[in-house]
Write a structure and sequence with these properties.
The complex is a heterotrimer of chains A (about 120), B (about 475) and C (about 100).
Chain A lengths: L1 H27 L28 H14 L2 H9 L1 H28 L7
Chain B lengths: L8 H19 L8 H18 L6 E3 L4 E3 L1 H20 L1 H7 L3 H20 L3 H19 L6 H32 L4 H7 L7 H17 L8 H8 L2 H26 L4 H23 L5 H18 L6 H32 L10 H4 L1 H15 L5 H11 L6 H26 L13 H19 L2 H14 L3
Antiparallel strand pairs in B: 1-2
Helix pairs in contact in B: 1-2, 1-5, 2-3, 2-5, 3-5, 3-11, 3-14, 3-19, 3-20, 5-6, 5-11, 6-7, 6-11, 7-9, 7-10, 8-11, 9-12, 10-11, 10-13, 11-13, 11-14, 12-13, 12-18, 13-14, 14-16, 14-17, 14-19, 14-20, 16-18, 16-19, 17-19
Chain C lengths: L6 H21 L3 H26 L5 H31 L13
The chains are: A mainly alpha (about 120), B mainly alpha (about 475), C mainly alpha (about 100).
């Protein structure tokens, strides 16, 4: 069980770090109460409305396109790490891969996914 | 590492075809000029079919067994391509009139076919999974294709969720088998898994695998997505889902279970026999009260999945031959039936069985093809379905006699609901006696389906021999 | 490396995660929640794959490669699920699965 001692110490010190930090600041902070303290951005810009508004569908379209193109990194990264071993044939294959993705981008563009309506 | 790309020419050609259709669709100026895409897609698919046929007799593996090419996989690839060609050809006017986006439609069909073909040839779990998901994701898009129609969208969501869950279950099973054996290659698996080395982990993985594949072939009790999705999807897609997706899933089911896990046959044979029995019972019995023809065909396809599963139980070349023979026959019967459904829908805008009243007067050819297809599915003697069922059930008379009885009785039950449609078509008077005009393409497809079903029933020897050769090649690894 | 970690822990962890995912798919009524549950099931698979790779085939990276593909396909599935959810909200104004009863279950 000796191996688990490290994990336990790690957990405890992690928890202590948070607790001690919050605790000390709670103890030594100056306490004043007025209505400016209760604002969302203290001494900042005034709040106009609630943050719980409906976002437009357009945001989600952007998010979708981001998710889909974001995942290509998963394949680019292992390729980049072994770039030298894979050589020219790896480069060509990666260009084919990117080319297919670019076709998808072209499609999204043509469908008007990047226009803010 | 040297890779012989010429062995992959089917897949590469199909991928290039899909990308060309996609690019063409993007560059053509307006949506209305995209009509030619369907013809182009068929032309390309015919070329790919030619390439695939030329691989008959090749036995090779790529990348240390990640990709297997043998007569078995070539047989199923031909099946998938023939299904794609016939469906695209037979429903082109339906697609032109009802589906506005040709570019997405045809390229996604081609990518679904590519997924099937990759899955059929898969020699390891990773390739299997990629092919399976390429096919499934394409089908989700196609099922939800009429995105302004709530039914289509709802079917798409249901298919997405259930397909997602089923692939997660399947993957978990695959990961457990990988953990138990340390390999993902199916051929290596066959050597490692023998009767003496079975661990609980392996058995648990096997059960999850059965559940995951059960979803894909829509075997009961994992069938609940099928009726809804079949009803809500555009009819050509329903047909392709019933034929292509099912055949490809059966191909990989055979590859994994008979090819890879033959050492555990004792464990999975009983499990599959029970699934087959439930599918046959439930599919046929629930089909009886259906009033929508697509739902009825969905339940009938659940029963057909049960029949095909019978061929796996003995893990013998005869059984595999039965699976391949039946899958090929089922292709023509299903495509015949669904192309008629498409043609009738175009005229009447309804999929209810009641709207088929008097079809024999409005379009004798459509009624005849529908009748022959349904009777072939029921397994009435001179038609192909009978021969297929005969091949399947003769393999299990030694060990699973009870299943033979269930199959026989339920085949008789199925005649009842198939003939009910025939009765409506031939006996009832049409409410609207105007003849249904179908285009030349539809007529040609229907005649091909009808002739194939008739000829293969009377003279099954050539196809039987071909599937025999293919089944033999499966066992020579 | 002398740790007392063994594959059993990972199998239990992934089995628990998988079971939570299955429960979520069955019990949740919102499409987004169901999609998240499916992601959890796939995460359980990935834990299995990477752990088995480490313990059983440390010299070959089969499991890790498999995991990369699983992550990709999971992203594709989520993208598609969200796209369908957006289309459904536009069409029906709801993401509650109980409202989708046009087709019989």
């Amino acid at each position: 069980m000796i191996n688990w001692l490290g994990v336990l110490i790690f957990l405890l010190s992690g928890a202590a770090f948070g607790v001690i930090g919050i605790g000390i600041s709670y103890l030594i902070q100056p306490r004043t109460k007025n209505r400016y303290k209760l604002e969302v951005y203290e001494s900042g810009i005034p709040v106009k409305a609630s943050a719980w508004v409906r976002f437009r569908n357009q945001y989600f379209t952007y998010a979708l396109i981001f998710v889909i193109f974001d995942v290509e990194i998963l394949y680019l990264y292992p390729w980049a790490v072994s770039f030298v071993e894979l050589g020219l044939s790896g480069l060509i294959k990666m260009f084919i891969f990117i080319f297919i993705l670019v076709l998808g981008l072209w499609y999204a563009w043509k469908e008007g996914a990047f226009e803010w309506r | 590492m040297h890779i012989d790309y010429s062995l992959l020419s089917t897949e590469i050609a199909l991928a290039i075809l899909g990308l060309i259709v996609f690019t063409l669709g993007l560059t053509l100026p307006s949506r209305s000029t995209n009509r030619g895409l369907g013809a182009f897609a068929i032309f390309g698919l015919l070329i790919v079919l030619g390439i695939t046929v030329s691989f008959w007799g090749t036995q090779a593996e790529l990348l240390a067994g990640m990709y297997l090419i043998d007569n078995f996989s070539v047989f199923f690839k031909i099946l998938a391509l023939v299904a794609a060609i016939l469906i695209v050809f037979g429903t082109m006017s339906y697609a032109n009139n009802n589906l506005s986006r040709q570019l997405e439609y045809y390229s996604t069909i081609i990518f679904a076919t590519l997924g099937m073909i990759i899955m059929i040839s898969a020699g390891d779990f990773i390739t299997l999974y990629i092919g399976l998901e390429l096919m499934t994701v394409s089908f989700i898009i196609l099922v939800a294709f009429r995105k302004t129609d709530g039914h289509s969208l709802e079917a798409g969501i249901k298919y997405l969720i259930l397909a997602g869950v089923s692939s997660a279950v399947l993957l978990y099973g695959l990961s457990l088998i990988y953990g138990a054996t340390g390999t993902v290659y199916i051929l290596e698996l066959a050597e490692l898994v023998t009767a003496g080395t079975i661990s609980p982990l392996l058995v648990f993985g096997l059960v999850l695998l059965v559940a995951g594949f059960g979803f894909k072939i829509s075997a009961a009790p994992f069938h609940m997505w099928a009726p809804d999705v079949y009803e809500g999807a555009p009819t050509p897609i329903t047909a392709y889902l019933a034929v292509g997706s099912k055949a490809a899933s059966f191909a990989i089911l055979v590859r994994v279970f008979v090819g890879g896990l033959a050492g555990m046959q004792e464990q999975w044979a009983t499990l599959l026999a029970v699934l087959a029995a439930i599918s046959i019972l439930l599919g046929n019995l629930v089909a009886i009260p259906q009033t929508n023809i697509k739902r009825m065909l969905a339940y009938s396809s659940i029963a057909q999945a049960g029949y095909i599963m019978v061929g796996l139980l003995t893990a013998s070349p005869e059984g595999i031959k039965g699976v391949m023979f039946y899958a090929f026959i089922y292709l023509f019967a299903t495509i015949g039936a669904f192309v008629v459904v498409c043609a009738v829908y175009e005229k009447t805008k309804s999929d209810e069985i009641a709207s088929y009243a008097g079809l024999s007067q409005r379009s004798p050819l459509a009624a005849a093809v529908m009748l022959i297809s349904l009777l072939s599915m029921a397994g009435i003697p001179p038609l192909a379905g009978f021969v297929g069922k005969f091949y399947l059930f003769t393999t299990i008379t030694d060990n699973f006699m009870w299943l033979v009885y269930i199959g026989l009785i339920m085949s008789m039950v199925s005649v009842y609901y198939y003939l009910r449609v025939a009765l409506v078509m031939y006996r009832d008077e049409p409410t609207d006696p105007t003849p249904i005009k179908m285009g030349a393409a539809v007529n040609v497809t229907l005649i091909i389906a009808m002739v194939a079903t008739l000829v293969l029933g009377i003279y099954p020897t050539p196809l039987s021999e071909l599937s025999n050769i293919a089944a033999q090649s499966f066992f020579t690894w | 490396m002398a740790t007392s970690l063994n594959p059993t822990y990972f199998i239990f962890l992934s089995a628990a995660l998988f079971a939570i995912g299955v429960y979520g798919v069955i019990a949740k009524k919102n499409i987004i929640a169901v999609l998240v549950s499916i992601e959890m099931m796939l995460a359980a698979v990935n834990i299995n794959l990477v752990a088995f790779n480490k313990f059983f085939t440390p010299e070959a990276f089969i499991g890790q490669i498999f995991a990369i593909f699983v992550v990709t396909v999971a992203a594709v599935e989520i993208g598609l699920g969200l796209a369908l959810a957006i289309a459904l909200v536009r069409k029906r104004g709801t993401t509650n699965l109980d409202d989708f009863d046009w087709l019989k279950w």
